Protein backbone atom coordinates (compact mmCIF):
# COMPACT_ATOMS: atom_id res chain seq x y z
CA UNK A 1 0.00 0.00 0.00
CA UNK A 2 2.82 2.39 0.92
CA UNK A 3 4.54 1.69 -2.39
CA UNK A 4 1.36 2.43 -4.36
CA UNK A 5 0.89 5.76 -2.55
CA UNK A 6 4.55 6.56 -3.26
CA UNK A 7 3.98 5.91 -6.98
CA UNK A 8 0.95 8.24 -6.99
CA UNK A 9 2.80 11.00 -5.12
CA UNK A 10 5.84 10.79 -7.39
CA UNK A 11 3.69 10.68 -10.54
CA UNK A 12 1.84 13.88 -9.55
CA UNK A 13 5.10 15.46 -8.43
CA UNK A 14 6.81 14.66 -11.74
CA UNK A 15 3.91 15.84 -13.93
CA UNK A 16 3.72 19.17 -12.08
CA UNK A 17 7.49 19.63 -12.39
CA UNK A 18 7.37 18.93 -16.13
CA UNK A 19 4.51 21.38 -16.69
CA UNK A 20 6.46 24.08 -14.84
CA UNK A 21 9.49 23.27 -16.99
CA UNK A 22 7.45 23.60 -20.22
CA UNK A 23 6.13 26.93 -18.95
CA UNK A 24 9.70 28.15 -18.32
CA UNK A 25 10.71 27.05 -21.85
CA UNK A 26 7.80 29.06 -23.27
CA UNK A 27 9.03 32.07 -21.26
CA UNK A 28 12.55 31.51 -22.62
CA UNK A 29 11.20 31.54 -26.16
CA UNK A 30 9.39 34.81 -25.40
CA UNK A 31 12.70 36.23 -24.12
CA UNK A 32 14.37 35.33 -27.43
CA UNK A 33 11.50 37.07 -29.25
CA UNK A 34 11.79 40.07 -26.94
CA UNK A 35 15.54 40.49 -27.39
CA UNK A 36 15.30 40.08 -31.16
CA UNK A 37 12.44 42.48 -31.58
CA UNK A 38 13.10 45.59 -33.63
CA UNK A 39 10.59 48.30 -32.86
CA UNK A 40 8.50 48.92 -35.95
CA UNK A 41 6.28 51.70 -34.62
CA UNK A 42 8.12 54.32 -36.67
CA UNK A 43 7.42 52.52 -39.96
CA UNK A 44 3.80 51.59 -39.24
CA UNK A 45 1.08 53.55 -41.05
CA UNK A 46 -0.22 56.34 -38.79
CA UNK A 47 -2.94 58.94 -38.82
CA UNK A 48 -1.65 62.46 -39.41
CA UNK A 49 -3.33 64.33 -36.56
CA UNK A 50 -2.24 67.65 -38.08
CA UNK A 51 -4.76 66.98 -40.84
CA UNK A 52 -8.30 67.56 -39.44
CA UNK A 53 -9.67 65.02 -41.94
CA UNK A 54 -7.57 62.26 -40.37
CA UNK A 55 -8.47 62.91 -36.73
CA UNK A 56 -10.78 60.06 -35.69
CA UNK A 57 -13.63 60.35 -33.20
CA UNK A 58 -12.70 58.78 -29.85
CA UNK A 59 -14.82 57.74 -26.87
CA UNK A 60 -13.08 57.36 -23.50
CA UNK A 61 -14.88 54.93 -21.18
CA UNK A 62 -14.27 55.08 -17.42
CA UNK A 63 -15.90 52.01 -15.79
CA UNK A 64 -16.13 52.79 -12.05
CA UNK A 65 -17.69 51.22 -8.98
CA UNK A 66 -17.56 52.80 -5.50
CA UNK A 67 -14.37 54.78 -6.15
CA UNK A 68 -14.74 57.56 -3.58
CA UNK A 69 -11.00 58.01 -3.01
CA UNK A 70 -9.87 58.36 -6.62
CA UNK A 71 -12.79 59.74 -8.67
CA UNK A 72 -11.79 63.40 -8.44
CA UNK A 73 -8.19 62.58 -9.35
CA UNK A 74 -9.36 60.44 -12.28
CA UNK A 75 -11.68 63.06 -13.74
CA UNK A 76 -9.17 65.88 -13.31
CA UNK A 77 -6.58 63.81 -15.13
CA UNK A 78 -8.84 62.70 -17.99
CA UNK A 79 -9.98 66.31 -18.52
CA UNK A 80 -6.35 67.17 -19.37
CA UNK A 81 -6.24 64.79 -22.36
CA UNK A 82 -5.06 66.78 -25.38
CA UNK A 83 -7.47 66.06 -28.21
CA UNK A 84 -9.93 68.17 -30.23
CA UNK A 85 -13.10 68.51 -28.13
CA UNK A 86 -15.23 68.09 -31.24
CA UNK A 87 -13.79 64.59 -31.71
CA UNK A 88 -13.78 63.43 -28.08
CA UNK A 89 -16.47 61.97 -25.84
CA UNK A 90 -16.05 60.73 -22.25
CA UNK A 91 -18.39 58.20 -20.66
CA UNK A 92 -18.27 57.77 -16.88
CA UNK A 93 -19.84 54.30 -16.57
CA UNK A 94 -20.78 54.52 -12.91
CA UNK A 95 -22.15 51.35 -11.28
CA UNK A 96 -21.55 52.73 -7.78
CA UNK A 97 -23.91 51.87 -4.94
CA UNK A 98 -22.62 54.38 -2.37
CA UNK A 99 -22.57 58.14 -1.86
CA UNK A 100 -19.63 58.57 -4.26
CA UNK A 101 -22.29 58.87 -6.98
CA UNK A 102 -23.27 62.35 -5.71
CA UNK A 103 -19.74 63.76 -5.87
CA UNK A 104 -19.11 62.14 -9.25
CA UNK A 105 -22.27 63.73 -10.67
CA UNK A 106 -21.12 67.13 -9.36
CA UNK A 107 -17.62 66.84 -10.88
CA UNK A 108 -19.01 65.63 -14.20
CA UNK A 109 -21.41 68.60 -14.26
CA UNK A 110 -18.52 71.01 -13.63
CA UNK A 111 -16.52 69.49 -16.51
CA UNK A 112 -19.55 69.74 -18.81
CA UNK A 113 -19.59 73.48 -18.16
CA UNK A 114 -16.06 73.72 -19.57
CA UNK A 115 -17.34 72.43 -22.91
CA UNK A 116 -16.15 68.86 -22.45
CA UNK A 117 -18.48 66.19 -23.86
CA UNK A 118 -18.68 64.03 -20.74
CA UNK A 119 -21.63 61.92 -19.63
CA UNK A 120 -22.41 60.33 -16.26
CA UNK A 121 -24.04 57.03 -17.19
CA UNK A 122 -25.85 55.01 -14.51
CA UNK A 123 -27.42 51.55 -14.77
CA UNK A 124 -30.31 50.14 -12.78
CA UNK A 125 -28.29 46.99 -12.01
CA UNK A 126 -24.74 45.63 -12.25
CA UNK A 127 -25.56 42.82 -14.64
CA UNK A 128 -22.37 41.61 -16.29
CA UNK A 129 -20.32 43.80 -13.92
CA UNK A 130 -17.55 45.67 -15.79
CA UNK A 131 -18.26 43.88 -19.07
CA UNK A 132 -21.94 44.82 -18.78
CA UNK A 133 -21.11 48.47 -18.13
CA UNK A 134 -18.72 48.64 -21.11
CA UNK A 135 -21.26 46.94 -23.38
CA UNK A 136 -24.07 49.29 -22.38
CA UNK A 137 -21.83 52.34 -22.84
CA UNK A 138 -20.84 51.08 -26.29
CA UNK A 139 -24.48 51.22 -27.43
CA UNK A 140 -24.42 55.03 -27.34
CA UNK A 141 -20.69 55.64 -27.87
CA UNK A 142 -20.05 58.12 -30.68
CA UNK A 143 -16.40 57.17 -31.16
CA UNK A 144 -14.98 54.98 -33.88
CA UNK A 145 -12.34 54.09 -31.28
CA UNK A 146 -12.88 53.41 -27.57
CA UNK A 147 -10.19 54.01 -24.93
CA UNK A 148 -10.71 52.41 -21.51
CA UNK A 149 -9.21 53.44 -18.16
CA UNK A 150 -9.86 51.98 -14.73
CA UNK A 151 -10.29 54.45 -11.86
CA UNK A 152 -6.68 54.28 -10.64
CA UNK A 153 -5.04 55.01 -14.02
CA UNK A 154 -3.54 58.39 -14.88
CA UNK A 155 -2.70 58.62 -18.59
CA UNK A 156 -0.44 61.44 -19.77
CA UNK A 157 -2.13 64.33 -21.55
CA UNK A 158 -0.72 63.22 -24.94
CA UNK A 159 -1.78 59.58 -24.49
CA UNK A 160 -4.36 59.60 -27.28
CA UNK A 161 -1.94 61.26 -29.69
CA UNK A 162 0.54 58.41 -29.08
CA UNK A 163 -1.95 55.57 -29.49
CA UNK A 164 -4.87 56.33 -31.80
CA UNK A 165 -2.52 57.09 -34.71
CA UNK A 166 -1.78 53.37 -35.26
CA UNK A 167 -5.37 52.60 -36.22
CA UNK A 168 -4.67 53.87 -39.73
CA UNK A 169 -3.82 50.21 -40.34
CA UNK A 170 -7.32 48.80 -40.87
CA UNK A 171 -6.31 45.40 -39.46
CA UNK A 172 -5.43 46.82 -36.03
CA UNK A 173 -8.20 46.11 -33.52
CA UNK A 174 -6.46 47.11 -30.28
CA UNK A 175 -3.56 49.27 -29.15
CA UNK A 176 -2.37 48.40 -25.62
CA UNK A 177 0.14 50.38 -23.54
CA UNK A 178 2.45 49.39 -20.69
CA UNK A 179 1.35 49.97 -17.10
CA UNK A 180 3.48 52.15 -14.85
CA UNK A 181 3.32 52.20 -11.04
CA UNK A 182 3.04 55.47 -9.12
CA UNK A 183 3.54 53.72 -5.75
CA UNK A 184 6.09 51.05 -6.72
CA UNK A 185 8.28 51.73 -3.65
CA UNK A 186 5.48 52.06 -1.09
CA UNK A 187 6.14 48.62 0.45
CA UNK A 188 7.50 45.14 -0.16
CA UNK A 189 4.07 44.14 -1.44
CA UNK A 190 3.94 46.91 -4.05
CA UNK A 191 7.52 46.24 -5.17
CA UNK A 192 6.67 42.57 -5.74
CA UNK A 193 3.53 43.40 -7.70
CA UNK A 194 5.40 45.93 -9.84
CA UNK A 195 8.14 43.37 -10.50
CA UNK A 196 5.63 40.75 -11.71
CA UNK A 197 3.63 43.20 -13.83
CA UNK A 198 6.80 44.61 -15.41
CA UNK A 199 7.71 41.10 -16.55
CA UNK A 200 4.28 40.66 -18.11
CA UNK A 201 4.35 44.04 -19.84
CA UNK A 202 7.81 43.54 -21.31
CA UNK A 203 8.75 39.87 -21.75
CA UNK A 204 5.26 38.47 -22.36
CA UNK A 205 3.44 41.23 -24.22
CA UNK A 206 6.39 42.17 -26.45
CA UNK A 207 7.57 38.57 -26.82
CA UNK A 208 4.18 37.41 -28.08
CA UNK A 209 3.34 40.50 -30.14
CA UNK A 210 6.73 40.48 -31.89
CA UNK A 211 5.93 37.15 -33.59
CA UNK A 212 2.23 37.69 -34.12
CA UNK A 213 1.15 35.43 -31.24
CA UNK A 214 -1.98 36.27 -29.27
CA UNK A 215 -1.64 38.93 -26.59
CA UNK A 216 -4.32 40.36 -24.34
CA UNK A 217 -5.89 43.71 -23.80
CA UNK A 218 -5.20 44.31 -20.10
CA UNK A 219 -8.62 45.68 -19.19
CA UNK A 220 -7.39 49.27 -19.08
CA UNK A 221 -4.81 51.65 -20.59
CA UNK A 222 -5.65 50.52 -24.09
CA UNK A 223 -7.87 51.52 -26.99
CA UNK A 224 -10.19 49.40 -29.15
CA UNK A 225 -11.60 49.82 -32.62
CA UNK A 226 -15.36 49.76 -32.00
CA UNK A 227 -15.87 47.62 -35.10
CA UNK A 228 -13.47 45.02 -33.65
CA UNK A 229 -15.41 44.75 -30.38
CA UNK A 230 -18.70 44.22 -32.24
CA UNK A 231 -17.21 41.83 -34.80
CA UNK A 232 -15.73 39.66 -32.02
CA UNK A 233 -19.08 39.32 -30.25
CA UNK A 234 -19.00 42.33 -27.90
CA UNK A 235 -18.20 42.33 -24.18
CA UNK A 236 -19.38 39.22 -22.33
CA UNK A 237 -19.67 38.82 -18.56
CA UNK A 238 -19.37 35.03 -18.30
CA UNK A 239 -15.76 35.14 -17.05
CA UNK A 240 -14.03 37.32 -14.44
CA UNK A 241 -11.47 38.51 -17.01
CA UNK A 242 -13.65 39.89 -19.79
CA UNK A 243 -10.57 41.58 -21.28
CA UNK A 244 -8.75 38.29 -21.95
CA UNK A 245 -11.95 36.73 -23.28
CA UNK A 246 -12.65 39.46 -25.85
CA UNK A 247 -8.95 39.60 -26.79
CA UNK A 248 -8.94 35.94 -27.83
CA UNK A 249 -12.26 36.14 -29.67
CA UNK A 250 -10.98 39.16 -31.62
CA UNK A 251 -7.64 37.60 -32.56
CA UNK A 252 -9.35 34.37 -33.61
CA UNK A 253 -11.21 36.56 -36.12
CA UNK A 254 -7.85 37.82 -37.46
CA UNK A 255 -7.80 41.24 -35.81
CA UNK A 256 -4.26 42.42 -35.05
CA UNK A 257 -3.19 43.82 -31.68
CA UNK A 258 -0.46 46.41 -31.34
CA UNK A 259 1.50 46.68 -28.11
CA UNK A 260 3.39 49.89 -27.28
CA UNK A 261 6.08 49.17 -24.70
CA UNK A 262 7.35 52.76 -24.87
CA UNK A 263 4.02 54.32 -23.89
CA UNK A 264 3.66 54.06 -20.12
CA UNK A 265 0.33 54.61 -18.38
CA UNK A 266 0.82 55.19 -14.63
CA UNK A 267 -1.47 53.50 -12.13
CA UNK A 268 -1.74 52.67 -8.45
CA UNK A 269 -0.92 49.22 -7.05
CA UNK A 270 -2.90 47.66 -4.16
CA UNK A 271 -1.06 48.41 -0.91
CA UNK A 272 -2.98 46.07 1.40
CA UNK A 273 -2.80 42.32 1.05
CA UNK A 274 -6.58 41.85 1.18
CA UNK A 275 -6.86 44.06 -1.91
CA UNK A 276 -4.03 42.17 -3.62
CA UNK A 277 -5.76 38.89 -2.68
CA UNK A 278 -9.04 39.89 -4.36
CA UNK A 279 -7.21 41.09 -7.47
CA UNK A 280 -5.10 37.93 -7.69
CA UNK A 281 -8.15 35.74 -7.17
CA UNK A 282 -10.07 37.47 -9.98
CA UNK A 283 -7.16 37.37 -12.43
CA UNK A 284 -6.30 33.72 -11.77
CA UNK A 285 -9.85 32.42 -11.70
CA UNK A 286 -10.63 34.43 -14.83
CA UNK A 287 -7.59 32.94 -16.56
CA UNK A 288 -8.82 29.41 -15.82
CA UNK A 289 -12.35 30.32 -16.94
CA UNK A 290 -10.96 31.58 -20.23
CA UNK A 291 -8.98 28.37 -20.68
CA UNK A 292 -12.26 26.44 -20.44
CA UNK A 293 -13.99 28.85 -22.79
CA UNK A 294 -11.35 29.41 -25.47
CA UNK A 295 -8.75 26.63 -25.56
CA UNK A 296 -10.60 24.40 -28.04
CA UNK A 297 -11.22 27.37 -30.34
CA UNK A 298 -7.48 28.12 -30.29
CA UNK A 299 -6.42 24.50 -30.84
CA UNK A 300 -8.90 23.93 -33.70
CA UNK A 301 -8.37 27.30 -35.44
CA UNK A 302 -7.32 26.92 -39.08
CA UNK A 303 -6.04 30.48 -39.44
CA UNK A 304 -3.17 30.42 -36.90
CA UNK A 305 0.17 28.61 -36.81
CA UNK A 306 1.12 25.74 -34.51
CA UNK A 307 3.54 27.99 -32.60
CA UNK A 308 0.82 30.61 -32.05
CA UNK A 309 -1.48 27.85 -30.82
CA UNK A 310 1.23 26.62 -28.42
CA UNK A 311 1.80 30.08 -26.97
CA UNK A 312 -1.95 30.66 -26.85
CA UNK A 313 -2.52 27.49 -24.81
CA UNK A 314 0.39 28.34 -22.49
CA UNK A 315 -0.97 31.88 -22.11
CA UNK A 316 -4.41 30.57 -21.14
CA UNK A 317 -2.73 28.14 -18.72
CA UNK A 318 -0.63 30.87 -17.05
CA UNK A 319 -2.72 30.98 -13.89
CA UNK A 320 -2.80 27.18 -13.71
CA UNK A 321 0.94 27.20 -13.06
CA UNK A 322 0.09 28.21 -9.49
CA UNK A 323 -1.67 24.86 -9.09
CA UNK A 324 1.44 23.06 -10.38
CA UNK A 325 3.67 25.06 -8.02
CA UNK A 326 1.39 24.32 -5.07
CA UNK A 327 1.39 20.59 -5.88
CA UNK A 328 5.19 20.51 -6.13
CA UNK A 329 5.44 22.39 -2.83
CA UNK A 330 2.96 20.20 -0.98
CA UNK A 331 4.40 16.92 -2.25
CA UNK A 332 8.05 17.88 -1.83
CA UNK A 333 8.16 16.79 1.83
CA UNK A 334 6.58 13.34 1.28
CA UNK A 335 8.94 12.99 -1.68
CA UNK A 336 11.93 13.50 0.64
CA UNK A 337 10.78 10.60 2.81
CA UNK A 338 10.03 8.40 -0.20
CA UNK A 339 13.55 9.07 -1.45
CA UNK A 340 14.98 7.94 1.90
CA UNK A 341 12.75 4.83 2.14
CA UNK A 342 12.90 3.63 -1.47
CA UNK A 343 16.36 4.00 -3.04
CA UNK A 344 14.99 2.51 -6.29
CA UNK A 345 13.28 5.84 -6.96
CA UNK A 346 16.56 7.77 -7.12
CA UNK A 347 16.19 8.19 -10.88
CA UNK A 348 12.86 9.98 -10.34
CA UNK A 349 14.53 12.58 -8.15
CA UNK A 350 16.68 13.65 -11.03
CA UNK A 351 13.41 15.37 -12.04
CA UNK A 352 14.28 17.95 -9.40
CA UNK A 353 16.84 19.30 -11.82
CA UNK A 354 13.91 20.44 -13.97
CA UNK A 355 12.70 22.69 -11.16
CA UNK A 356 16.18 24.12 -10.61
CA UNK A 357 16.56 24.67 -14.36
CA UNK A 358 13.09 26.28 -14.53
CA UNK A 359 14.09 28.68 -11.75
CA UNK A 360 17.34 29.59 -13.53
CA UNK A 361 15.46 30.21 -16.80
CA UNK A 362 12.96 32.50 -15.07
CA UNK A 363 15.79 34.26 -13.22
CA UNK A 364 17.47 35.05 -16.56
CA UNK A 365 14.21 36.05 -18.28
CA UNK A 366 13.14 38.40 -15.50
CA UNK A 367 16.58 40.01 -15.34
CA UNK A 368 16.33 41.18 -18.94
CA UNK A 369 12.87 42.61 -18.35
CA UNK A 370 13.92 44.20 -15.04
CA UNK A 371 16.90 45.99 -16.54
CA UNK A 372 14.83 47.24 -19.48
CA UNK A 373 12.88 49.39 -17.00
CA UNK A 374 15.22 49.82 -14.01
CA UNK A 375 18.55 49.82 -15.86
CA UNK A 376 21.59 47.52 -15.71
CA UNK A 377 24.79 47.81 -13.70
CA UNK A 378 26.10 45.94 -10.65
CA UNK A 379 23.97 47.76 -8.06
CA UNK A 380 20.80 47.14 -10.01
CA UNK A 381 21.73 43.48 -10.44
CA UNK A 382 22.19 43.07 -6.68
CA UNK A 383 18.83 44.77 -6.14
CA UNK A 384 17.36 42.46 -8.76
CA UNK A 385 18.59 39.34 -6.94
CA UNK A 386 16.89 40.55 -3.76
CA UNK A 387 13.59 41.39 -5.42
CA UNK A 388 13.57 38.19 -7.50
CA UNK A 389 13.86 35.88 -4.49
CA UNK A 390 11.46 38.03 -2.47
CA UNK A 391 8.98 37.82 -5.36
CA UNK A 392 9.57 34.07 -5.72
CA UNK A 393 8.95 33.47 -2.01
CA UNK A 394 5.78 35.56 -1.84
CA UNK A 395 4.47 34.02 -5.09
CA UNK A 396 4.91 30.63 -3.39
CA UNK A 397 3.01 32.03 -0.40
CA UNK A 398 0.10 32.98 -2.67
CA UNK A 399 0.04 29.54 -4.32
CA UNK A 400 -2.73 28.11 -2.11
CA UNK A 401 -4.97 31.17 -2.56
CA UNK A 402 -4.39 31.27 -6.31
CA UNK A 403 -4.75 27.49 -6.71
CA UNK A 404 -8.23 27.67 -5.17
CA UNK A 405 -9.08 30.42 -7.67
CA UNK A 406 -7.76 28.29 -10.56
CA UNK A 407 -9.70 25.21 -9.46
CA UNK A 408 -12.91 27.23 -9.17
CA UNK A 409 -12.29 28.55 -12.67
CA UNK A 410 -11.70 25.10 -14.17
CA UNK A 411 -14.72 23.65 -12.34
CA UNK A 412 -16.95 26.44 -13.63
CA UNK A 413 -17.95 27.76 -10.22
CA UNK A 414 -19.44 31.23 -10.69
CA UNK A 415 -18.61 34.11 -8.36
CA UNK A 416 -19.09 37.84 -8.12
CA UNK A 417 -16.73 40.28 -9.83
CA UNK A 418 -14.94 41.88 -6.85
CA UNK A 419 -13.34 45.22 -7.69
CA UNK A 420 -9.94 46.00 -6.20
CA UNK A 421 -10.18 48.84 -3.64
CA UNK A 422 -8.33 52.02 -4.66
CA UNK A 423 -6.44 54.23 -2.19
CA UNK A 424 -5.17 57.44 -3.80
CA UNK A 425 -1.68 57.00 -2.32
CA UNK A 426 0.85 59.21 -4.05
CA UNK A 427 3.81 58.88 -1.70
CA UNK A 428 5.16 56.63 1.01
CA UNK A 429 3.78 58.72 3.89
CA UNK A 430 0.14 58.38 2.77
CA UNK A 431 -1.92 55.92 4.79
CA UNK A 432 -4.43 53.34 3.57
CA UNK A 433 -6.02 52.93 7.00
CA UNK A 434 -9.67 53.83 7.21
CA UNK A 435 -10.42 52.86 3.59
CA UNK A 436 -14.06 51.79 3.82
CA UNK A 437 -13.88 49.47 0.83
CA UNK A 438 -11.37 47.08 2.40
CA UNK A 439 -12.55 43.62 3.39
CA UNK A 440 -13.15 43.56 7.13
CA UNK A 441 -13.29 39.79 7.43
CA UNK A 442 -10.18 37.66 7.53
CA UNK A 443 -9.76 35.20 4.68
CA UNK A 444 -10.62 31.63 5.77
CA UNK A 445 -7.56 30.53 3.80
CA UNK A 446 -5.41 32.19 6.45
CA UNK A 447 -5.73 29.19 8.76
CA UNK A 448 -4.46 26.89 6.03
CA UNK A 449 -1.66 29.33 5.21
CA UNK A 450 -0.56 29.34 8.86
CA UNK A 451 -0.58 25.53 8.87
CA UNK A 452 1.42 25.45 5.64
CA UNK A 453 3.97 27.83 7.16
CA UNK A 454 4.49 25.29 9.96
CA UNK A 455 4.43 22.40 7.47
CA UNK A 456 7.37 23.84 5.55
CA UNK A 457 9.18 24.58 8.80
CA UNK A 458 8.84 20.84 9.41
CA UNK A 459 10.23 20.32 5.90
CA UNK A 460 13.35 22.28 6.82
CA UNK A 461 13.71 20.27 10.03
CA UNK A 462 13.31 16.99 8.09
CA UNK A 463 16.49 17.74 6.17
CA UNK A 464 18.48 17.06 9.36
CA UNK A 465 17.44 13.44 10.21
CA UNK A 466 17.23 12.53 6.52
CA UNK A 467 20.60 14.19 5.82
CA UNK A 468 19.12 15.59 2.63
CA UNK A 469 19.43 19.36 2.26
CA UNK A 470 18.63 19.57 -1.46
CA UNK A 471 15.16 21.04 -0.85
CA UNK A 472 16.10 23.15 2.16
CA UNK A 473 16.29 26.47 0.21
CA UNK A 474 12.95 25.72 -1.43
CA UNK A 475 11.28 24.97 1.91
CA UNK A 476 12.84 28.10 3.41
CA UNK A 477 11.29 30.24 0.65
CA UNK A 478 7.95 28.49 1.18
CA UNK A 479 8.14 29.14 4.92
CA UNK A 480 8.96 32.81 4.32
CA UNK A 481 6.30 33.17 1.61
CA UNK A 482 3.43 31.63 3.56
CA UNK A 483 4.62 33.46 6.67
CA UNK A 484 4.55 36.79 4.81
CA UNK A 485 1.05 36.23 3.39
CA UNK A 486 -0.30 34.99 6.74
CA UNK A 487 1.17 37.75 8.92
CA UNK A 488 0.29 40.54 6.47
CA UNK A 489 -3.26 39.22 6.19
CA UNK A 490 -3.49 39.11 9.98
CA UNK A 491 -2.11 42.58 10.67
CA UNK A 492 -2.81 44.75 7.61
CA UNK A 493 -6.48 45.51 8.04
CA UNK A 494 -8.36 48.77 8.12
Give the N-to-C terminal Cα separation: 50 Å
CATH superfamily descriptor of the largest domain: Spore Coat Polysaccharide Biosynthesis Protein SpsA, Chain A
Number of helices: 16
Number of domains: 2
- Kindly state the number of beta strands: 7
Instruction: Work out the strand percent.
Output: 5-15%
Report the mean per-residue pLDDT as an integer.
91
CATH fold topology of the largest domain: Spore Coat Polysaccharide Biosynthesis Protein SpsA, Chain A
Taking pLDDT < 50 over at least 5 consecutive residues as the criterion, the unreliable ranges are: none
Q: What's the story with the biggest beta sheet?
A: 7 strands, mixed
Strand order of the largest sheet: 3-2-1-4-6-5-7
CATH class of the largest domain: Alpha Beta
Order of helices and strands: HEHEHEHEHEHEHHEHHHHHHHH
Second CATH tier, the architecture of the largest domain: Alpha-Beta Complex
Radius of gyration: 24 Å
What share of the residues lie within helices? 40-55%
Give the overall silhouette.
globular
Subcellular location: Golgi apparatus membrane
Organism: Pricia antarctica
Transmembrane segments: 6-32, 316-335, 347-368, 446-464, 470-487
GO biological process, one term: cell wall organization
Please render the helix and strand layout as text.
Layout: H1 2-36, E1 58-64, H2 71-78, E2 88-94, H3 100-112, E3 118-122, H4 129-140, E4 145-148, H5 159-163, E5 172-181, H6 188-210, E6 222-225, H7 226-231, H8 242-252, E7 256-267, H9 273-300, H10 306-316, H11 321-341, H12 352-374, H13 378-397, H14 399-411, H15 445-466, H16 472-491
Parallel strand pairs: 1-2, 1-4, 2-3, 5-7
Antiparallel strand pairs: 4-6, 5-6
Helix pairs in contact: 1-6, 1-11, 1-12, 6-12, 6-13, 8-9, 9-10, 9-14, 11-14, 11-15, 12-13, 13-16, 15-16
Amino acid sequence: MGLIISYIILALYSIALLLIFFYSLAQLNLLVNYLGYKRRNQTAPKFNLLDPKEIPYVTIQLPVYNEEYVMERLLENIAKIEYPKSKLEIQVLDDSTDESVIDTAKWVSELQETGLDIQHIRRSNRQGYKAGALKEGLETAKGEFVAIFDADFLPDSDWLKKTVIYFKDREIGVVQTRWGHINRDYSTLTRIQAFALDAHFTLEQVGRNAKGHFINFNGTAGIWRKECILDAGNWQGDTLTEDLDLSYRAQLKDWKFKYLEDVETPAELPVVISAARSQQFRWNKGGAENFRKSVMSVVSAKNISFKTKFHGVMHLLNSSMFLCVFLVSLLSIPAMYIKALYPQFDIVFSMLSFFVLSTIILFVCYWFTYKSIQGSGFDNFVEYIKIFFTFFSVALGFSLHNSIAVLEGHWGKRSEFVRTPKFNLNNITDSWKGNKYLAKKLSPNMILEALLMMYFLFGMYSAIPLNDFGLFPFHLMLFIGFGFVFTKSLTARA
